[in-house]
Design goal:
The protein is an all-alpha fold. The protein has three domains: 192 residues, no CATH class; 92 residues, Serine Threonine Protein Phosphatase 5, Tetratricopeptide repeat, CATH 1.25.40.10; 60 residues, no CATH class. It is 82% helix and 0% strand. The protein has 17 helices and no strands. Helix 4 crosses helix 8. It is globular, with a radius of gyration of 26 Å.
């Protein structure tokens, strides 16, 4: 899925899905006489292969963006402009890959494939692949990616039902004159939607070219950030390590190596990288290096050092919910219960007063703080 985002083209993904759909349904063409074969094929095409792809493009992908907007990750119009084309490209690629095994079986075997369980299996495989794509694109957790994908899948099923009720309307939409009219009407808009994807792909390609320079530590770092967001941690670690190798004083690369190590519960290594980063730049990443170092100390069972690092962070960033939560945990482990409860309350208040576009990102820290307060009652 990372390669699809980096090198893919929407028209290629759509063509692959179209070919798989044609292969899936070609045996359904009722060719009884050579003279009527072409007419029957044309009459069959729109309803047979077009409906599921239209449901993905028109219903499923917008529904997924709507869910993400409702969760506080930006306005729907903004997400539609920036994320529709890459997400549609992932969805079409996943649809093609998910249904390809069934299409091959239907085309070249005599197995009793009318059983709906075969289609359910292909649909589940498609949904699974798309969830991986969502996780890769947004760097979200597995549960969040599955939730977004399931919401889109449910909307897609409803869209298929609506299309079934429309019946002959699909034949009208497949008319060459209608398609030409729609192309001229929306072609410029579609090009605008794809501009964001092309820009990101071009940027990454330029970074990869720059990374060939053995002295360009920043290109290595930027590529590492891309891999890190996609949770491709092996590649991210290699890029950050290369940046540190080029420039041992590259504080940002040390910090990201520490963040990844902490997430993988390699706490001693995380502390080493984060201490180095903090020594190189005391206010790195708007002081977030101290929050990460404090959390790493907690993982390493060094609550006293964690409390000191987190106190420095919360003094400088008094409204950061994550830092307040970790500070509360450190205080609790050092026996300062009253101060810990105060930090948890401040974390909850900070989440509640966050701007709407940030609230989805920080909400988990408020939930954790409430859980800690409830445990003390």
């Amino acid at each position: 899925m990372g390669r699809v985002l980096d090198r893919g083209r929407l028209w290629m993904a759509a063509a692959a899905a179209l070919c798989v759909s044609l292969l899936l349904h070609w045996r359904d063409v009722p060719l009884r006489a050579p003279s009527s074969a072409l007419l029957e094929f044309i009459a069959w095409m729109p309803g047979a292969y077009l409906a599921p792809l239209l449901a993905v493009a028109v219903v499923m992908v917008p529904a997924m963006l709507l869910v993400r907007a409702a969760a506080g990750h930006g306005g729907f119009a903004v997400l539609l402009n920036t994320d529709y084309v890459p997400l549609l490209m992932l969805a079409m690629s996943a649809w093609a890959a998910g249904y390809l095994p069934l299409a091959v079986l239907r085309a070249f075997t005599v197995l009793p494939l009318g059983d709906p369980w075969y289609y359910l299996a292909a649909n589940l495989y498609f949904t699974f692949l798309l969830a991986i794509g969502v996780r890769t694109m947004y760097g979200s957790g597995t549960a969040s990616a599955i939730g977004i994908t399931f919401a889109g899948w449910s909307a897609g099923v409803l869209g298929m039902l609506v299309m079934a009720l429309l019946g002959g309307a699909l034949y009208f939409l497949a008319s060459p004159l209608v398609l030409i009219y729609l192309y001229f009407l929306f072609a410029s808009r579609l090009r605008d939607l794809g501009a964001g994807l092309r820009s990101r792909q071009h940027f990454q390609q330029q970074l990869e070219i720059a990374a060939n320079n053995p002295h360009d530590d920043d290109a290595q770092y930027q590529l590492g950030l891309i891999h890190q967001k996609r949770r491709q941690y092996t590649d991210a670690i290699a890029r950050f390590a290369r940046a540190v190798e080029i420039d041992p004083s590259f504080a940002d690369a040390h910090m990201q190596l520490g963040v990844i190590a902490r997430g993988q519960q390699r706490f001693a290594e995380a502390v080493g990288h984060l201490k180095t980063a903090a020594e190189l730049d005391d206010r790195l990443a708007q002081n977030e290096v101290w929050r990460e170092l404090g959390a790493a100390y907690l993982g390493a069972s060094q609550a006293g050092l964690a409390a000191a690092a987190l106190e420095k962070f919360t003094t400088r960033r008094p409204y950061d919910p994550e830092g307040l939560y970790w500070h509360g945990v450190a205080l609790k482990r050092t026996g300062r219960q009253d101060q810990a409860r105060e930090m948890f309350r401040r974390a909850i208040e900070s989440v509640n007063t966050m701007p709407p576009h940030r609230r989805a990102e920080v909400r988990p820290w408020g939930a954790r703080a409430r859980k800690e307060l409830a445990a003390d009652r």
